Amino acid sequence: MQRFPFYMDIKENLNRIKATLPPGVTLVAVSKTHPVEMLQEAYDAGQRIFGENKVQEMTAKSQVLPKDIEWHFIGHVQSNKIKMMAPYVSVIQGVDTYDKLAEIDRQAARFNRHITCLLQLHIASEETKFGFSADECTQMLDEGKWKDLQNITIGGVMGMATNTDDEAQVRREFGRLKELFDTYKQKYFAGSADFNTISAGMSGDYELAIEAGSNMVRIGSSIFGERNYNLNK
Ligand SMILES: *Cc1c(COP(=O)(O)O)cnc(C)c1O
Fold it and tell me: Judging by DSSP bridges, how do beta strands 115-121 and 91-95 pair with one another?
């Protein structure tokens, strides 16, 4: 479902995508597997928010690239890797247990920092996607222990739709994410400006996600081209 012909002109790709984003939609440039030179090119074109899904790789890149980059971790969060990214990460998308929230809080405190977390919700029909079920998430929020965590902010939700050509299904899944966001906002975060993000949509489905209410898209291959995982293993 690649939308655009593939150009290696990262700046042009970025500009073309940005022109399709309504105001208020944040673009996370997903740079996983790509070399720092390509990230630097995107940076030089004005991009400041990058998403990575391996902690080691993100950390290595963060050490050589400009310090005003906002790093978003978009992979599956492993508790033992949180301390490695705690000194610099801005947003950890894809938090799917209370214990991980608590560990992020603990590590953020050690570095005297504040880290925004998004709650990953399992909206796809595929088994392999991580995330809270709606019930698990509601239960976690009901228990209320998260309110004591001083060094994190729950900034919203994140989700991934099923990888399918069935547009109706994808729309339904993104719609479900928006519905859960609205419910949580009303029930647990009313009056808090911090709970404001719906992170949904990738290269192949971001227009559908935006139509359903997403205000943060995570786009990789339409900016940087196809990923070759073998080169990086
Ligand atoms: C890789 C990845 C993306 C970007 O996918 P593209 O199809 O390359 O745009 C978005 N979100 C997550 C969680 C990813 O792992």
Answer: parallel
